[in-house]
Amino acid sequence: MASCSPLYFSTPFPTLPSSPSLPKLPRLPFHPSLLSHPFTHKPLPLAFSTGIRGASGSGRFFCRAKASMAEKGKGKVEVFDSEDDLSVSLAKYTADLADKFSKERGSFTVVLSGGSLIKSLRKLVEPPYVDAVDWSTWHVFWVDERVVPKDHDDSNYKLALDGFLSKVPILPGKVYAINDALPAEGAADDYETCLKHLVKSNVISVSAATGFPKFDLMLLGVGPDGHVASLFPGHPLVKENEKWVTFIKNSPKPPPERITFTFPVINSSANIALVVCGAGKAGPVHAALGNDQNSDPLPVGMVSPEGELVWFLDKDAASKL
Questions:
Q1: Is residue 98 within 8 Å of 138, Cβ to Cβ?
Q2: By mean pLDDT, which of 58-62, 117-121, 201-205, 263-267 is the weakest?
Q3: What is the pLDDT of residues 79-97, one digit of tens each?
Q4: Once rounded to an integer, what is the mean pLDDT over residues 138-163?
Q5: How many CB atoms lie under 10 A from the CB of residue 58?
Q6: How many Å apart are CA 42 and CA 69, to the nearest integer?
Q7: Strands ordered across the beta sheet of 144-146
Q8: Does 9 or 195 have the greater pLDDT score?
Q9: Whole-angstrom Cα distance, residue 309 to residue 76?
Q10: Which of 123, 172, 272, 294 could be 6's S-S partner, Cβ–Cβ 3.0 to 4.6 Å?
């Protein structure tokens, strides 16, 4: 196997109980001048709920003053009053999927990104999840990584370790960090080799439609310029359609050397959560979800998984919709 070294130890926890389905929420019309379909200009449905349900796993969370809307091709959009409400819902969403795939397949493959995403996962390290999730089934990957030592402040691995992974009992050998002793090209090839080994051993599923690895859940952030992973606007890597993992040596955002999953891998995912907070990211959110037609979409607008896409937005990130 490629170098994906075990870095911490744990004991298994009981599985999370399955969640009963909740009745559908009433749907209310929304004025098309505020939010409409980018092509038909027809109003999208909007659903509201108040209060928070399911704190002990009794159903999906509905956070106070959250607005939900769905549109074909753009996924489900959820807007929260605060980043804290968003984090509560994201924890429940992640735990529910972990429970589902763990029961179906005996494992749960989850892909992390850097930036503010790890902060938004903080509720998973609190009750009820820290003691109820079956962490022994988790396999953790990175959608991109900076080619720096693992203890460097720029490392996405270090960010995840400090803020999340060190607080939950993931089993040895199931946290797949890059080989930071290699240069960017070698680290990308090594990581792709690691993924192919895990596909052959049936840890990672394969998309029947594309042949690319199909992760159970990919948790993505968005940059102020609209980049996802280390796929930046206007960069040739955005169009890479053969490699699973590639590298960049001239990133417009430092550090310059990185590895990244390509869009075919990202979009083969069973589930993607796009987690976006802050007014500084309202522009790319609007570019991806608003009414403007752009022949050259930002990378965030190119996220379109085989399975479910859910946007988790705080009200500041959604302020231009």
A1: yes
A2: 58-62
A3: 999 999 999 999 999 999 9
A4: 97
A5: 12
A6: 13
A7: 144-146, 258-261, 245-248
A8: 195
A9: 6
A10: 172
Which pTM does this prediction carry?
A: 0.80
Domain boundaries, the chain: 42-314
Give the tokens for residue 164: 């999340």
- Is the C-alpha dihedral spanning 158, 161, 164, 165 positive or negative? positive
Backbone angles phi, psi at 118, to 5 degrees: -60, -40
**Cβ neighbour number for residue 183 with a 10 Å cutoff:** 11
Q: Which two tokens stand for residue 46?
A: 């909007």
Could you say which architecture CATH assigns to the domain 42-314? 3-Layer(aba) Sandwich (3.40)
pLDDT of residue 296: 81
**SS3 readout for the chain:** CCCCCCCCCCCCCCCCCCCCCCCCCCEEECCCCCCECCCCCCECEEEEECCCCCCCCCCCCCCCCEEEEEECCCEEEEEECCHHHHHHHHHHHHHHHHHHHHHHHCCEEEEECCCCHHHHCHHHHCCCHHHHCCHHHEEEEECEEECCCCCCCCCHHHHHHHHCHHHCCCCCCCECCCCCCCCHHHHHHHHHHHHHHHHHCCCCEECCCCCCEECCEEEECCCCCCCECCECCCCHHHHCCCCCEEEECCCCCCCCCEEEECHHHHCCCCEEEEEECCHHHHHHHHHHHCCCCCCCCCHHHHCCCCCEEEEEEECCCCCCC
Question: Tokens 């394969």 sit at which residue?
Answer: 206
156: nearest Cα among 259, 249, 234: 259
In contact, 138 and 104? CB cutoff 8 Å = no
For 214, left (φ over 0), alpha (ψ -120 to 50), or beta? beta
**What's the mean pLDDT in 259-287?**
97
Q: Residue 172's pLDDT is what?
A: 76
